[in-house]
Design brief:
The complex is a heterodimer of chains A (216) and B (161).
Chain A: E1 7-10, H1 15-26, E2 32-35, H2 48-53, E3 61-64, E4 67-70, H3 72-82, H4 93-109, H5 116-122, H6 127-149, H7 161-175, H8 184-193, H9 197-201
Chain B: E1 6-9, E2 12-15, H1 17-27, H2 38-54, H3 61-67, H4 72-94, H5 106-120, H6 129-138, H7 142-146
Antiparallel strand pairs in B: 1-2
Classes of the chains: A alpha+beta (216), B mainly alpha (161).
Chain lengths: 216, 161
């Protein structure tokens, strides 16, 4: 392994960055954080420097073991394969499929449809209703799936990659004032996860780039 | 999710195409769809996710309905071009014969259908020579031909190959 700590490019409020922060905390991986402000200077992710690092012009990106990985789930799966303890994916292939299905439901089916660049396109007037509709639609499906997969957490009783996706998405739901009453399983699991230290230290309200008014 | 694809297999039902593919890979491992090396696997997943999270959902049917008929074409073109700009750059460092090195991987399975969408929305592919080259090579393989939208049981007559 290369000497020198991994470097995470992160924005406090980016739900995708939060997923990776949780994974790094759960696996007790020591790392450096470089914050990228998605709003300031027209968005620091568009700088030439950052583009060279991650052509997607998005956070998170992780520089580790001599490579740079973009896409939060690709990062998490790499961490799982190279630093396997504690597990973030169950051993059983069917349970792994459930974990990945739930993770993808959130990471492909909800979050991209309500991220910053899409909301800009939608226009300020329609942003709130668009975000609410996208999140509710996804949560309707997720609540149903969880009926058959959930134990203490999304899949059974161990924290998995699915849980790393859930908590940041619920935070987005809160941010866009989505009523969570129709989703009791999502709410219960979210509440349990937030008591865990890894979910707290990685929280948007406790990051180096958290603005004073949002700081815990 | 009220979406396709869904696969009923081994007593379970899996939604989400990449979750399905990873399950197939873990239970029917030959031939490989993910390389052995973790760093190459990371590249395969990164490219797959770039397409499956970063491009496709933003131009799928339900989003285009929301955007409205007038704006659909320009929205789809913009989303695909933006994603392909990033993908073309990433491929400079990962691609060999295919998206990652010289073996077909999950990333290639994501690439071809997305290029077909790009064609459908009349995206100019000239800025993406690597994407075009890889797409062309992949389309010569039987698996990519038998699975093509123009050869399915539900392909309408006017689109049938």
């Amino acid at each position: 392994m290369q000497a020198g700590k991994p470097i995470l490019y992160s924005y406090f409020r980016s739900s995708c960055s939060w997923r990776v922060r949780i994974a790094l905390a759960l696996k007790s991986i020591d790392y450096e954080m470089v914050t990228v402000n998605l709003i300031k200077d027209g968005g620091q992710q568009f700088s030439e420097e950052f583009q060279a690092l991650n052509p997607m012009k998005q956070v998170p990106a992780l520089k580790i073991d001599g490579i740079t990985i973009g896409q939060s789930l690709a990062i998490i799966e790499y961490l799982e394969e190279t630093r396997p303890t504690p597990r973030l994916l169950p051993q059983d292939p069917k349970k792994r499929a459930h974990v990945r299905m739930i993770s993808d439901l959130i990471a492909s089916g909800i979050q991209p449809l309500q991220n910053l660049s899409v909301l800009k396109q939608v226009g300020q007037e329609k942003q709130l209703s668009w975000a609410q509709q996208v999140i509710s639609s996804g949560f309707n499906a997720l609540e149903r799936i969880l009926q058959s997969t959930a134990g203490k957490y999304c899949v059974g009783d161990e924290v998995s990659m699915a849980d790393l996706c859930l908590v940041p998405q619920v935070a987005n739901a809160d941010r866009y004032k989505v009523d969570l009453t129709p989703y009791p399983t999502i709410s219960r699991i979210n509440k349990s996860l937030l008591t865990l230290e890894a979910f707290q230290v990685s929280h948007p309200c406790r990051q180096p780039d958290t603005p004073p008014e949002l700081r815990a | 999710m009220k979406q396709v694809p869904a696969l009923k297999i081994d007593g379970i039902t899996i939604g989400q195409s990449l979750a399905i593919i990873e399950y197939l890979e873990e239970t029917r491992p030959t031939p490989r769809l993910l390389p052995q090396d973790p760093k190459k696997r990371a590249h395969v997943r990164m490219i797959s996710d770039l397409i499956a999270s970063g491009i496709q959902p933003l131009q799928n049917l339900s989003v285009l309905k929301q955007v409205g008929q007038e704006k659909q074409l320009s929205w789809a073109q913009q989303v695909i071009s933006s994603g392909f700009n990033a993908l073309e750059r990433i491929l400079q460092s990962t691609a060999g014969k295919y998206c990652v090195g010289d073996e077909v991987s999950m990333a290639d399975l994501c690439l071809v259908p997305q290029v077909a969408n790009a064609d459908r929305y009349k995206v100019d592919l000239t800025p993406y020579p690597t994407i075009s080259r890889i797409n062309k090579s992949l389309l010569t393989l039987e698996a990519f031909q038998v699975s093509h939208p123009c050869r399915q049981p539900d392909t309408p007559p006017e689109l049938r190959a």
